[in-house]
Amino acid sequence: MSTYLVFGATGNVSRRVAERLAWSGAAVRATSRTPEGAKLPRSVEVITPDLDAPGALDDVDAAFLMWPFHSAEPARPIVDALKRRVRHVVFMTGGGALPGVAPKEQPNPVARWHATVERLIEQSGMEWTVLSPSTFMTNTLWWSDQIKAGDIVRGSFGSLAMTPIHEDDIAAVAVHALTEPGHEGRRYTLTGPEVLPQAEQVRLIGEAIGRPLRWQELTLEQERARLLADPDFPDGFVEELLAGYAKMAAAPLPEVTSAIPDITGAPATTLSAWAAEHAANFGGEQR
Ligand SMILES: NC(=O)c1ccc[n+]([C@@H]2O[C@H](COP(=O)([O-])OP(=O)(O)OC[C@H]3O[C@@H](n4cnc5c(N)ncnc54)[C@H](OP(=O)(O)O)[C@@H]3O)[C@@H](O)[C@H]2O)c1
């Protein structure tokens, strides 16, 4: 039986990929820098992320790769290790990497790293599938402390519209791409089912947890100060986030794609359903 490798398997999406594969009875090998704390299904073999280590890629037919690094530097050794042993890589890209645009022409550093990895994979001789997801619903957990503390979420860009996506829907697509023929050489733009401004996302989370939450708009200066004072938010990401939001706010409204229902046969999950599932994270009761 061939084995599936899942990289970064304690992450938002990779954990779901590893679980879905394991529950289907597939052989799964997953990476974590702390394998003993990974809390994955028992049948999953957990290894460290050193893909050159003896046995790391034995019997691996297809791999799910995401990019947890803050540069493209590890890309070449990782892709080189994979291409020696693995037939097919499903890569979750990010950072707004624009398809068909050279890494150095990409709009921001994060897009440049992701485009670099995409290009290396595409030139490696392996079969590949690229998943390009929209904003994760898990990003709304950035508001969880404010929601636990009161009914107001303060931030800027409240009218900024997004198509938030459930991490498990991305994982479902990844599993189809890993386990079925026909996804090779494809780049899928994955979105959630609705176009939702941030303020509306807050209202829907409130509805799901049974509290009347509302958005309060901050100026950019106030928002910068708030994020820098937040011990859980990485300081180095503040300017990038604000610049990214300003760019998204000036761009045309994002569009919902049909890739999730087309590939999985099930509708993409709504934010209301995701919020009900994650109610405990916002101080509500899990449904
Ligand atoms: N958030 C969004 O809205 C969004 C939207 C589109 C695309 N993306 C892209 O999605 C990716 C992030 O996915 P995610 O949120 O599912 O990941 P995540 O939750 O941040 O988890 C990534 C996992 O990778 C492992 N990891 C971290 N640093 C590592 C390192 N240096 N070496 C090896 N493993 C490492 C960690 O596991 P261990 O600690 O167990 O090793 C971690 O659990 C990024 O490429 C991002 O650009 C995000």
UniProtKB/TrEMBL annotation:
Q: Which residues form the NAD(P)-binding domain?
A: 8-181
Instruction: Tell me where on the tree of life, at the top rank, the source sits.
Output: Bacteria
Q: Which residues form a coiled coil?
A: none
Give any Pfam family that matches: NAD_binding_10
Matching entries from SUPFAM superfamilies are given as: NAD(P)-binding Rossmann-fold domains (SSF51735)
InterPro entries per UniProt: Ergot_Alk_Oxidoreductase, NAD(P)-bd_dom, NAD(P)-bd_dom_sf
In Swiss-Prot or TrEMBL terms, this protein is called SDR family oxidoreductase
